[in-house]
Structure formats: C-alpha cells, structure tokens
Write a sequence for this structure.
C-alpha cells in the first residue's frame, strides 16, 4: 500500500493537484493531463471495463460502451495505473488496483470524508468521489480505516487480510445470520448482492 500511495501522490503532484480533496472532474482530469485531451475511446465489443490500445501511433484508453460514470471513473484510473506501472517495470495486478484506488479516492481526502460521514452508509462515502459503493467499501479496508471484507457474488475481498481468522464461506454466512457484535454489516446499495463487513471496536 505504501508503494501505491507514493505512486499516486507523485501523479497528483505532477499534475498540480492535491490528494487532500476529491478530484474535480474525476480521473478524466488526470488522464487528460497525462495522455492529452483526446485519450478516450468507447467500444461495444469490449470484454472488460477498460483496456489500452495504440491508435494512430498514440496511446488511448478504450472503455466498454455505456459504463456508469462511477465505473468509468475507476476504469480510467486503472488503465492509467497500468500504463505507468508497466513503463516503470513495477506492474502487478494487485499494485495496479491499489494505485487506481488511490487515484479515485486518495487516502487523505477519503479518510477525511470517513471522519465526517462514518461507515454506516457507503453512499455517503462514494458520492463525493464519483465511485461505486463497492469501491468505497474497499477503500475503507485498503487504507486501514477498518478491517473486514467486501462480499460480491463472485468473490470475497479481504484487503490487508481482513477477518483473517474466518473462511470465505463463513464470511458469506455472516451476511445471512447474526454476525459477532464486533462486526458491522453494511449494505452496498448501488450493485446487487453485495455487502461489507467491518470489524469495529468492542
């Protein structure tokens, strides 16, 4: 996570932007600074939310047509991270995701928002950063504001080994039964069948 923070801060500084507040215009602002204003293409045939391509000798970010603004914001952030990390020889899938997370919701600004809004409604954290509630819940865990897990239909995400003493199937079971008093269930409302579990102080 320290590496992701260093990379993220470097890009903000190079663009003359502050990580202490939400990025005005989302990651489109950063991408335009790095790649030029005509950096984005849409494709109805794209299999993933985003990829990169060289078109006419210039690097472009290609995104799936019709993405919600929140998913588009993260797709652009992820592709920027991929380009930069591959150029530096530091690329791993994990680091790409962490750098993208910092780009859309810098630890400094996101932590300040959590101190104001708390952890009960992910919409209150997601809205100022134009990210999904799933992304907001993951940022809570990635930054270390709380430990826990984010549960989706296909995967249980546990950044920083959250709830490390519990197997994935037991994490899912907590959503249907009574969780320990030290674990708070938080609904993710903008995508189906998703929730977060945060370990809270007793």
């Amino acid at each position: 996570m320290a590496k992701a923070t260093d990379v993220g801060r470097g890009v903000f500084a190079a663009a003359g932007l502050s990580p202490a507040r939400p990025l005005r215009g989302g990651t489109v602002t950063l991408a335009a600074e790095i790649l030029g204003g005509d950096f984005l293409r849409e494709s109805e045939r794209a299999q993933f939310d985003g990829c990169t391509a060289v078109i006419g000798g210039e690097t472009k970010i290609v995104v799936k047509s019709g993405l919600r603004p929140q998913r588009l914001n993260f797709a652009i952030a992820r592709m920027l991270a991929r380009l930069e990390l591959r150029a530096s020889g530091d690329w791993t899938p994990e680091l790409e995701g962490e750098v993208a997370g910092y780009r859309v919701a810098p630890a400094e600004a996101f932590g300040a928002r959590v101190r104001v809004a708390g952890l009960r409604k992910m919409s209150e954290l997601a809205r100022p950063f134009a990210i999904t509630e799933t992304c907001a819940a993951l940022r809570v865990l990635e930054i270390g504001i709380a430990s826990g897990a984010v549960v989706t239909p296909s995967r249980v995400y546990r950044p920083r080994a959250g709830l490390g003493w519990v197997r994935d199937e037991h994490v899912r079971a907590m959503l249907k039964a009574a969780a320990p008093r030290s674990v708070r269930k938080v609904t993710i409302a903008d995508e189906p069948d998703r929730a977060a579990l945060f370990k809270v102080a007793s």
Observations:
- The chain has eight helices and seven strands.
- Residues 69-88 form the longest helix (20 residues).
